[in-house]
Amino acid sequence: MSRVKFGAFAVSLFLCGAFLFTNCTNNTPAASPTDDSSQFVAISDVVPDAILEIRYFGTYNFVGTRINGYEEPIALMTRIAADSLRAVSDDVKALGYRLKIYDAYRPQGGVDHFVRWAADIPDTLMKTYFYPDLDKSVLFEQEYIYERSGHTRGSTVDLTLFDMTTEKELDMGGTFDWFGPESHPDFCGNPETGEYTGDNSKSPIGRSITEDQFAHRMILRHAMLRHGFKAIETEWWHFTLRDEPFPETYFTFPVKRLQ
Predict the structure, then answer these.
(1) What pLDDT does 27 receive?
(2) Which of 9, 33, 39, 118 has a 20 to 30 Å separation from 98 between CA atoms?
(3) Are strands 4-6 and 9-13 parallel, antiparallel or unpaired?
(4) What is the model's pLDDT at position 32?
């Protein structure tokens, strides 16, 4: 994750989902911008039963407004990543679930929007919903914001599971884009073994999740890892194709139907 200085702080967009985590890895090489969308597809064309709730097209997100570059409520992804996501979908459907997508490809203009918002300290419209335990002034200092995002490379997705029996999202014990340690995959458990420990010591005010909620996170995680995606340490919903086709490129075209 490349960092830049923003005032006294390193800019880091911890928003790979809920956290402005723009890059979500610490090894991004020098990137080149392009508006070439020829290797991208609409996720719905490859995974037709995926449910879309594109948070940055609407206003229910941590900024509280539509994000720049989101012109239509669709999800785009590189073709190779979408094919792998289809395999994940086939797996979880056998268990009674569907994929629900919050975000996938994110144009650089959207990332820039997050950076400007994070610098505007008085704007705390959505604090109650996404970062009640944090003062907005610490987002740069605590590396919740980056100037580059893995999403702009086109092979990253933020998602959850939808339970076809209850016809509701599977209870993950926390919302997408929640800023805090409660969103970490190892919160209250060990994601490598799938063991629930109940250890909530990282939560600043003693929040917790149940054994069932942790297990639900692991269903999603293990399905994604089985089909070539890698996770990050800070967001249970965020995954990037391990062998992504454009590791040194960030894309600038808007989120809308492809020509």
Answers:
(1) 43
(2) 39
(3) antiparallel
(4) 81
**Alpha carbon 171 to chain centroid, angstroms:** 17
Q: Note the residue count of the chain.
A: 259
Q: If we measure between CA atoms, which residue out of 40, 11, 91, 13 comes closest to residue 249? A: 40
Is 252 buried (19+), middle (13-18) or exposed (0-12) by CB count in 10 A? middle
Q: Where are the alpha helices (DSSP H) in 106-236?
A: 108-119, 127-130, 211-226
pLDDT tens for 145-191 read: 778 889 999 999 999 999 999 999 999 999 999 999 999 999 999 99
- Residue 140 in this model has a pLDDT that exceeds 90: no
Taking the CA atoms of residue 254, residue 92, residue 243 and residue 250 in that order, the dihedral angle to the nearest 10 degrees is 10
Work out the angle between the directed axes of helices 79-93 and 211-226 (0-180°, nearest 10). 130
Residues 11-58 have pLDDT tens digits of 333 344 444 443 444 444 456 899 999 999 999 999 999 999 999 999
- Pick from 200, 173, 180, 187: which is nearest to 131 by CA? 180
Q: Residues 16, 238: contact at Cβ < 8 Å?
A: yes
**pTM score:** 0.89
Determine contact, residues 15/115, Cβ cutoff 8 Å: no
Q: Which two tokens stand for residue 248?
A: 């040194």
| 226 contacts: CB under 8 Å, gap ≥ 6 | 88, 91
